[in-house]
Amino acid sequence: MIKKLILAATLLTSVVLTGCASVPMASPEMDTQAKQFTTVPDKAKIYIYRDENMGAAVKMPVLLNGMSVGDTVAKSYILREVEPGEHTILSKTENDAELTLTASAGNNYYVWQEVKMGTFAARSKLHLVDEAKGQKSVKACKLVK
To answer: Contact 56/74 with Cβ under 8 angstroms?
Structure first.
């Protein structure tokens, strides 16, 4: 019990001292362009967003088809253009959350990276959301480089 309290205190102190996590952000112009939500005739776009403030001090690595595409932080999103077909998104936190979607050319897809409380670190869950919810949420976030 004492060890758990010491660990919790250490983690809390670490979060307070480090503040919010940061990642390289895209220029405001790139962010504005991405929020036009244009489509590409022979490709699909996947927006992976984190629109919550919970877990602000935690970076969450994101992989697309096994390749790193960056880290999200609170109120941020990642945008990737992909070939049509099946794609797997993985959010690496205390747990590994996975979502597979089949992308069609000329469409945009919106994936919400939900932040959840974990035992020792943040956890996540991925949800494919509809266009209206996805666009509204992405508009409240900033583009990760």
So the answer is: yes
